[in-house]
Amino acid sequence: MVEAQAAGVVGKPFIESVDLLMCAGRVLAEQVQADRDIPPFPRSTRDGYAVRASDLSQLPATLEIIGEIRAGEKPEEIPASVGRGQTVSIMTGAPVPAGADAVVMVEYTSRHGAQVEIAKCVGSGENVVARGAEARMGRLLLRKGVLLNEAAIALAASVGKLKVEVYERPQVAVIITGDEIVDLETVPGPTQIRNSNGYSLAVQIRKAGGDPVLLPIAPDERARLREVIVEGLQSDLLLLTGGVSMGRYDLVEEVLTEMKAEFFFTGAHIQPGRPVVFGRVPCGADAPAGGDSSVSQGRYFFGLPGNPVSTMVTFELFARPMLEALAGMSARSLMFLHARLKAEIRTKTGLKRFLPAMLSGEFENPEVELVAWQGSGDIAAVARANCYAVIPPDRDRIASGEWVAVMMR
Predict the structure, then answer these.
(1) Integer-rounded Cα radius of gyration of the chain
(2) Relative to the CA of 149, which of 62, 113, 128, 162 has its CA 20 to 30 Å away?
(3) According to DSSP H, which parts of 62-210 are helical?
C-alpha cells in the first residue's frame, strides 16, 4: 500500500549539484553515461603471458618473449603485435597487445632467459576482458533515482564525474507524544521515561536519505498537540509516535481528523506495530501550500506506535518506502533474507510477527535465533539483536532447522 502511494503520488524534490565525495547515501538526479569504452583496451585479468591461444595446441609449448607490459604502459612502449610463436610478459590490468588473444597465468609457466615454457593451454579470450565488454561509450551506466552507494560512486568516478546532480534530502518532522515522555536533559519522575524514540527515528531517517527535524514533545492535550502537528506539516513528511491506540488520551487520530486528514489505513496485522496509521493532511489553513506536486496534494504523515520496538519496525515497513520516494529514489520492494532457525519458535497465530533476532553463521549456512525480549518496549533486546525474524501469521510453531524470512536492521 505505502509503496504504491509512494511510487504514484509523491513529487520529485529539488535538485542540487554536489561533489562526488559528498554524495554517499544521496539519490541520483541525472543519468550517468560512459564517456569511453570500458575498459578502453583489452585488459589482462592475470599476471602471466599474453599469447596466441593457437600456439598452445601441443604442450609443453616454448615461446619467444618479445617484451613486457605493465599496467599503465605508454602506447609507444607496447609491442606492435604478437606473432606466431611469440609472447609478452604481462601484468594484471595491462593492455593485451595486438595478435594475442589470451593470457596464461604465470603459475603455469617456467621462464628460461628470452623463452618461456608453458604447461597449460588456454582458450581464446581466457583471462582477457575485451575492450568495451563492461560498457560501450555512451551506454547508460546509472539511472536517475538510484541510491549512490560505494559501487555507484566508483562507477561515476570512472567516467570522470567530479560533481553529480542529486535530489535534495527531504525534511522529516518527528513528534513524540505523551505526558510520560521527557527530554534527555530532564530528570524523569517515577512514572516518566526519556525520549528514546526521537533518537532512534533520527538515525533511521538519516539512513533512509532524509534530514530529521525533532520537534518539541507534544503533551496529551488537544490544543498543544494541534500546534505541534501544524509545525510538523511544514516538513516534507511528518512522523508521530504514540497516541494512535484506543486509549482515552490517544488523541493523534482525533486531532488529525479535525484537520480533515484522509486516512489510507489505520492499523496493520503485524506485531509489534499493529496500531500504525498512514494518511495525508490536505492544504488549507493548517497545512502548508506550495508549488510542487507533493505540497499541492497536502502533506503525508505516519502515526507510529509509541513502544520503541514498534516504532522501529513500523518505520522500516511503512515510513521508509515513502521517505525514499520523497528523496527521489526509484520504487523498490522490501528486501528479506532467509536463514535456518537455530531453535524452535512457538507463538500465536493471526499476526505477522517481526521478532528481534540474531543472524549468525558463515557463507551458505546462515542461522537465526530469537533474542529474549519483554515485548515491544524492550529497547535493550533490539540493541542485542541484528535483525528481525519474520514469522508468518498462520504458523504457531516453526521447528529448529526450518527456513524463515529475516529483515535486516
Answers:
(1) 30
(2) 128
(3) 150-158, 197-207
Burial of 209 (0-12, 13-18, 19+ CB in 10 A): buried
Please tell me whether residue 63 adopts helix, strand or coil conformation: strand
Q: How far apart are CA 384 and CA 400, in angstroms?
A: 21
Place of cell 593485451: 96
Counted residue by residue, the chain has a size of 409
pLDDT above 90 as % of the chain: 81
CA 341 to chain centre: 25
Whether the CB-CB separation of 147 and 320 falls below 8 Å is answered with no
As a whole-number percent, the residues of the chain with pLDDT over 70 amount to 92
- Are 138 and 33 in contact, with CB atoms under 8 Å apart? yes
Please name the residues in contact with 95: beta carbons below 8 A apart, sequence gap of 6 or more: 41, 42, 43, 44, 69, 73, 78
8 A C-beta contact, residue 111 and residue 131: no
Region 234-256 average pLDDT: 81
Residue whose cell numbers read 533476532: 357
The three-state (H, E, C) secondary structure of 349-364, written as one string = CCCEEEEEEEEECCCC
The one-letter code for the residue type at 112 is H
- Tens digits of per-residue pLDDT, 164-222? 999 999 999 999 998 899 999 999 899 988 999 999 999 999 999 999 999 999 988 99
Residue whose grid cell is 529475516: 406
- Pairwise CA distance, residues 164 & 172, whole Å: 24
- 319: which DSSP letter? I
Instruction: Give the pLDDT score at 291.
Output: 40
Q: What are phi and psi of 107, to 5 degrees?
A: -60, -20
| 3-class secondary structure, 283 | coil
Determine contact, residues 141/32, Cβ cutoff 8 Å.
yes
